[in-house]
Here is the input.
Amino acid sequence: NDIEGTSFQFFEITAEEPELRNQLSFFVVFLIMIFSLRIMTTSHLKTLSGEHVLNLHNLNDVNLIKEVFLAYLNAALLEPVLALGNEDTSSVKSLANIFELLSLCWWIWLVSDAFDFNDVMVQYKFHYEFREEIEDDPRKFSFMRLRDRQKESQLERQSFFGSLKRDVALWFMLGSIASAWLPGAVTHRDVLHAYVVVMIWAVMHHYLRRATCWGINYFYTFLFPSTALLPMEYCFPLMDTADVVEDPGFVVTYRQFVLERTGVELIIET
Here is the structure.
């Protein structure tokens, strides 16, 4: 009860700050505007089909930028944690630090998930390499339950139309920066990490477009990060020539797998 009372009092005091209330109102309006834009442009996001070039040299540059991005995000986590432990920090600053900490964790999850292709390779192995053997001897593999391949492909293609929980990570940063330009309790110093994250994302986004572009224009893929990042988990297995790419036959089969799952026919350039 004491904890609940303290939490309620904390947010009550914060909400009564007139300048912060103005900034929060602008922040909410900004997010609503971006969300409305996403709804209006959904038809433009549903353009994943046909041939699309994958440049492996530029994909390697993306991988290097990803490492820099994650290194910064991990280092930045320490600052809001230490600030929250400072007893002299005001309620407004504490709230800003909490949101900053959550947003940095959000971006770590977003970037890590985009470049982790283990789930894709699991689908490839079980639905392409092992499926025929499993279906030929159902009694031997009675413990395995493979879902319908067509239904799985349909669900996967829908995710490439844009993922709200991923896109909001960037919108939050942009909204924080825009709010800091208004007079109020939250200053540009408080959203410094938001500036850096957006700048690094701008660089990464440019190299993502150079590596591969799945039929969506520059503005959309920048504002909706999921549309630029989600294809990476299908592209990065082709970079792992030590463990994944064994021979040209794998590349042929894997391209067919990607085509069935996403509707995209990769043209590999190296």
Summary: The two ends are 62 Å apart (CA to CA). Confidence is low (pLDDT under 50) at residues 1-7. The first helix runs from residue 2 to 15. The CA atoms of residues 30 and 175 lie 6 Å apart.
